């Protein structure tokens, strides 16, 4: 059977670019914002930017980017930075020119950034000064000249570099050289806005092609979901203040905590880096009413002694996403925030975020539920044999939505496997009960660490370059703080280790772990450890039987010991 969210009117999604929709258009569902109510608040200084100021800054920056760098239609610009008050300004300026944004994780190594720049074919980089060295190495490797690297800063400007402030000043004083990109009828559905990167089962990250209409659609879908007749507890009110701590390069932060909040007339406090003590102080200092978080933050909020020092009674809504939240944590959150609406949401980069979302008619959503289908979503739960599940049966979630991405850039095989006849195969197994969606397991081999996707094949390929590794399988194992963490089962070269000598075993395990930590972003490090094993179990065609090892890892983690030569 099929499951459907509430209806979505065909004329609800305007044919606009994202900045036109966000800065210029008066959508019927858009909440009013007072002239002096900031769209963004800089966490450290409390400095705010109003809508008019943001609009002018976008215009000046767009003019400078076209005048100085000739950025134009379909050029790709990489933003390699933590959250910054000028991050959204930069996005919208690039979009005004018809160009494409590829947001990159600021913790990437230069090899990881190089892969993104190369696949996206970026020709310009906006970078935080702290990451300039990494950006320079990656840029050199792909042929981006130094003079096309812009510092995401209003103050720091080493000789030979432009920063955001210098470009805004240039655009303000120069003749206007650009014409804002106007869309042909229906073009918002096909015009690329973002190349956002998402890991998959085949190894390195893939570039997800997200059109302007996808982001706009998801904002409107969520706005209908929280329309006055549904939002019985009045949780979406202009003048409220939202937490902008989730990274804007991640689809959750980009669409939900940034664009959706702005649409509701809510100010976003921009927080560049998560530090728990500072995080609590920011919530109180800015009287933040809306918390969009991930499970590790929920764990800290409910279990860290520091939380008890602060009065968080003003919080009106807490939504957790990016990875499943346990029922115990939901209950603990409801005690910590007794007056807040609490629940979860679920989505993917490929769905341009939200598929299901907490029920706005309930104060605390169904324990364990990821939420309900938002308007305009049609879902099927599919068994392994291709037949459709009934309510209560477990199968893969497959969805249709006006917010779906178009494809994977430059990867026809992955596109054909994931985007099928207008449907998106999520790779997640779910169960539906009374309209609530419960995420049960992942069919895809990838897993999530603190909400970030990790592809086992990528780590396995890297580990096999270590001379002591004969074969390897990486699995995600449960972790209360991170959700899951990587553990590597390794078949060592017989000459590389004496399995009867604990010091030899420990030394090689440390060397293998260091081989990953020296070359990969931190969330990909082998926090679950390295375990030696006789052989990696595989089926007759050679495919790793990952579920067997994952089950073994979970079992051994519970008992507290691993066998150095496990017989599987």
Automatic annotation (TrEMBL):
<dbReference type="InterPro" id="IPR025110">
    <property type="entry name" value="AMP-bd_C"/>
</dbReference>
<dbReference type="InterPro" id="IPR020845">
    <property type="entry name" value="AMP-binding_CS"/>
</dbReference>
<dbReference type="Pfam" id="PF00501">
    <property type="entry name" value="AMP-binding"/>
</dbReference>
<feature type="domain" description="AMP-dependent synthetase/ligase">
    <location>
        <begin position="39"/>
        <end position="408"/>
    </location>
</feature>
<dbReference type="Pfam" id="PF13193">
    <property type="entry name" value="AMP-binding_C"/>
</dbReference>
<feature type="domain" description="AMP-binding enzyme C-terminal">
    <location>
        <begin position="458"/>
        <end position="543"/>
    </location>
</feature>
<protein>
    <submittedName>
        <fullName>Phenylacetyl-CoA ligase</fullName>
    </submittedName>
</protein>
<dbReference type="InterPro" id="IPR042099">
    <property type="entry name" value="ANL_N_sf"/>
</dbReference>
<dbReference type="InterPro" id="IPR000873">
    <property type="entry name" value="AMP-dep_synth/lig_dom"/>
</dbReference>
<dbReference type="InterPro" id="IPR045851">
    <property type="entry name" value="AMP-bd_C_sf"/>
</dbReference>
<keyword id="KW-0436">Ligase</keyword>
<dbReference type="GO" id="GO:0016405">
    <property type="term" value="F:CoA-ligase activity"/>
</dbReference>
